[in-house]
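INFO  loader      accepted 1 record
INFO  loader      residues=180
INFO  predictor   begin
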Amino acid sequence: MKSCSNGSNEPFEKIVISNLLVREVVEEDLPALEWEGQYERYRLIYRRALREAQNGRQVLLVADFGGAIVGQIFILLNTVRADPRPQPYTGYLYSFRVKPKYRNRGIGGSLIQRAESVLVDRSFRRVLIGVAKVNHDARRLYQRHGYQIISEDPGEWSFIDHNNQVQRVVEPTFIMQKML
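INFO  predictor   done
INFO  writer      dumping tokens
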């Protein structure tokens, strides 16, 4: 084993991802989206997003590696509130993450490519994604995939967590875009 910069302090083991499947979320996936409790505070958001997907307003994708969810990306098909320069046929990617143990293996790129394909298949011409200003690794990933910073956002929002408590988030963000 050797050490690797994969966002964790765990030893790096070579993981073959030839049997990676990027697929749409099903209801049975909801508990796994909480990543063993790390994201349980978003439980209600995930349930609402699944309802929106079932109604055709979102698409939720996961990276499934041997039956385990190791990554996710959600696609908002109506970007009016998220778009600093509203244009028709624009999708918005969010809730994008890959488990640290599986980073730097092409999984994030596979999720982005599949999300973009979903949008192209629906005749979308533009895609946006927000990235925390402090998340330099993610910003570099998006830039490698052709995204460019077009604006900044204060990143202030709130949500109801799994305990029915209001949680406020302040995460200054760059909004990045790519023409499809």
